[in-house]
Design goal:
The protein is mainly alpha-helical and 276 residues long. The protein has eleven helices and no strands. α2 runs parallel beside α5.
Length: 276
């Protein structure tokens, strides 16, 4: 099964070009816009993620299908209630997945790719991890709820397409009811900020509701500084993809005991033993 998001890739590339041209002809001194090497890196990461992700998707389908067959019931795709359940369950699964990938270092090692650019534009949305294997457990409960696997994959693609449009500085804050309920470019700009006030905030996919309920919401206020707290200063796709895995391994290898090794793997990014 080819994920539906693959069919949107030509539109994504076209919109990146359109946005880049908008900076050329309608520049804004408050927005960072595009830089060629940064954009090429983002596109390279996106292409690599698709090459790796397609065969992995086949494994995912098999696992979801196995879970679906042992579910205590199997929900009908013709029922609007199934689709509503899917929408909410998928968005909650994304929130849990996203939060875990910011708070557990071995998971962050893959997700850090998406935050590694010091710019924020539509090409940033394409800067994706080359290690998609960590996503599977977070959506497995949906199949165990009896939601057909093809519906899960379709909703994942819908969510990813929606989130593509969040990666822009060209859209200001929207109508207040929209900002209250949905994830918006403003909320996602804050999520990509390396400012202390924005760290580990706004994990939502389509909805911002889970962040509000679970107290991880932060509105965009002070000017956002994009990138990492310690930027990697490279456009090499291999380094972008794997630099944090290498750093994690160095810390694990040099740790004094197994407790510290576990801390480096399972603790939040930046965790250090209490003795240091």
């Amino acid at each position: 099964m080819i994920p539906a998001v693959v069919y949107a890739i030509p539109a994504f590339v076209l919109l990146v070009v359109v946005e880049a041209l908008s900076y050329r002809f309608l520049p804004d001194d408050d927005e960072r816009g595009y830089e060629l090497r940064d954009t090429v890196t983002s596109m390279s990461m996106g292409a690599g993620s698709q090459v790796i992700g397609l065969p992995w998707k086949a494994v995912t389908v098999l696992v979801y299908a196995a879970a679906f067959t042992v579910a205590p019931w199997q929900l009908s795709s013709s029922s609007p209630w199934t689709w509503l359940l899917l929408f909410l369950a998928d968005d909650l699964a994304y929130y849990v997945f996203h939060r875990a990938h910011h708070r557990v270092r071995v998971l962050w090692a893959g997700h850090v790719v998406h935050h590694s650019s010091v710019r924020f534009n539509l090409s940033t949305a394409l800067r994706q991890s080359w290690t998609p294997m960590t996503t599977l457990p977070f959506w497995l409960p949906l199949a165990l709820l009896g939601i057909p696997p093809w519906m899960i994959l379709l909703q994942q693609s819908v969510s990813l397409v929606y989130q593509f449009f969040l990666h822009t500085e060209r859209v200001d804050k929207l109508w207040r009811p929209v900002e209250w309920l949905f994830n918006t470019p403003s909320h996602h700009r804050a999520h990509h900020g390396s400012n202390n006030v924005y760290l580990d905030r706004n994990y939502g996919g389509i909805l911002i509701l889970w962040d509000r309920l679970l107290r991880t919401f932060e509105p965009e206020g002070e000017r956002v500084v994009y990138g990492l707290t310690k930027n990697i200063d490279t456009h090499n796709p291999l380094r972008v993809a794997f630099h944090e895995y290498a750093a994690t391994w160095r810390d694990v290898r040099s740790a004094a005991n197994w407790r510290d090794r576990a801390g480096h793997l399972l603790g939040p990014p930046g965790w250090t033993p209490a003795s240091r």
